């Protein structure tokens, strides 16, 4: 192929494939996480008088909200970086989008870390941990997670800035010097990946040892242990997917600072893949919930049935309104016709011939 053909293929890839890929991630992730939130809130509303929400449900709800915010606030803008030649959204969004990316990353990984500790306590100390594993304490932990995430992500509000380059083209680029950027990126890798992943591995290793290596055959067959195994299996899969999906993103950063990372087609493709994987992580969790947990499958079905029922009710209501309007229009048409006929009769002078004669005579 000629250089012109290669350039056209590259433009077609940037303008067609990349937007389609990001749109698919956005659509699936938004629909899935909205479904998770709706299922959890509906279950809570239906059973609000029976029992309080579990700590795991609260953490999963927080994780879904963080993923939803990440998808809606970041993915559409990040897609334009690969498809457009310039940044169109101003200085505020340049800073806000990258801030929200790392805010969501921190809140997600710390939520998963809190869930891993919660699962370990529930399985290792089922009775003693009840006083600690309360909804109130879970909400307190969620508030601490968001506060810590805000602190760790806040430097990114000044990390990026809109810059005007030759040709009157604006770009959203890092403006810190290399030394500060290197320290910031390494700190993000340590506090946003290494430490949480280490805690996840330690917590789930001990949890699996307690849950799957059982010496009591009666306890092995209990329904409670089977339920705990399913919940723990689901959370482990979610945590493993987070680690795998965000690993390429951190590898790109580490290669840039400590390795060899030239800007060519191969590195461009790998950087795009790393971004797509980190974004796709936010739409994989609802799929895991649906595949592993029968309770989530039931919740999703109930939400769908509720939406379909409301849609049918709205259609029936619209048909009834349309029929009522048409009936009123027919009735009003008949009434108008009768009134028009009556007005015509009243407007005709009863003594018209005499009036005409009088007028003629006067003239």
UniProtKB/TrEMBL annotation:
InterPro entries, per database record: Galanin_rcpt, GPCR_Rhodpsn, GPCR_Rhodpsn_7TM
Keywords: Disulfide bond, G-protein coupled receptor, Membrane, Receptor, Transducer, Transmembrane, Transmembrane helix
GO cellular component: plasma membrane
Keyword NADP: no
PROSITE patterns found in the cross-reference section: G_PROTEIN_RECEP_F1_1, G_PROTEIN_RECEP_F1_2
Compartments where found: Membrane
Record field: transmembrane: 20-41, 61-84, 96-117, 138-159, 186-204, 234-260, 272-292
SUPFAM superfamilies: Family A G protein-coupled receptor-like
Record-linked Gene3D superfamilies: Rhodopsin 7-helix transmembrane proteins (1.20.1070.10)
Molecular function as annotated in GO: G protein-coupled receptor activity
Family indicated by similarity: Belongs to the G-protein coupled receptor 1 family.
PANTHER family in the cross-refs: GALANIN RECEPTOR TYPE 2-LIKE ISOFORM X2, LEUCOKININ RECEPTOR-RELATED
Protein name: Galanin receptor 2
């Amino acid at each position: 192929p000629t250089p012109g053909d290669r350039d056209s293929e590259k433009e077609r890839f940037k303008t067609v494939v990349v937007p389609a890929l990001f749109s698919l991630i956005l659509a699936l992730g938004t629909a899935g996480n909205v479904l998770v939130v709706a299922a959890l809130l509906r279950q809570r509303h239906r059973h609000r008088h029976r029992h309080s929400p579990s700590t795991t449900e609260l953490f999963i709800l927080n994780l879904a909200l963080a993923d939803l915010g990440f998808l809606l606030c970041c993915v559409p803008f990040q897609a334009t970086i690969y498809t457009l030649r310039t940044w169109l959204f101003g200085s505020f969004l340049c800073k806000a989008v990258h801030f929200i990316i790392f805010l969501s990353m921190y809140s997600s990984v710390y939520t998963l870390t809190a869930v891993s500790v919660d699962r370990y306590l529930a399985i290792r100390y089922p009775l003693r941990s009840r006083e600690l594993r309360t909804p109130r304490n879970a909400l307190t932990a969620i508030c601490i997670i968001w506060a810590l995430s805000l602190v760790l992500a806040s430097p990114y509000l000044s990390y990026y800035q809109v810059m005007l380059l030759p040709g009157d083209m604006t770009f959203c680029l890092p403006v810190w010097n290399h030394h500060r950027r290197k320290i910031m990126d390494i700190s993000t890798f340590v506090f946003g990946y290494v430490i949480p992943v280490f805690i996840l591995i330690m917590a789930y290793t001990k949890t699996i040892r307690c849950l799957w290596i059982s010496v009591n055959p009666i306890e092995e067959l209990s329904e409670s242990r089977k339920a705990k195994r399913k919940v723990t299996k689901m959370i482990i899969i979610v945590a493993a997917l987070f680690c795998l999906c965000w690993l390429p993103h951190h590898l790109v950063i580490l290669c840039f600072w400590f390795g060899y990372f030239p800007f060519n087609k191969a590195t461009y493709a790998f950087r795009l893949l790393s971004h797509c994987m980190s974004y796709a992580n936010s739409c994989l969790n609802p799929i895991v919930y649906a595949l592993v947990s029968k309770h989530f499958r039931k919740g999703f079905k109930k939400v769908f049935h509720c939406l379909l029922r409301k849609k049918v009710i709205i259609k029936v209501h619209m048909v009834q309104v349309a029929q009522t309007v048409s009936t009123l229009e027919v009735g009003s048409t008949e009434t108008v016709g009768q009134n028009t006929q009556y007005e015509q009769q009243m407007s005709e002078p009863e003594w018209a011939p005499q009036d005409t004669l009088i007028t003629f005579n006067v003239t």
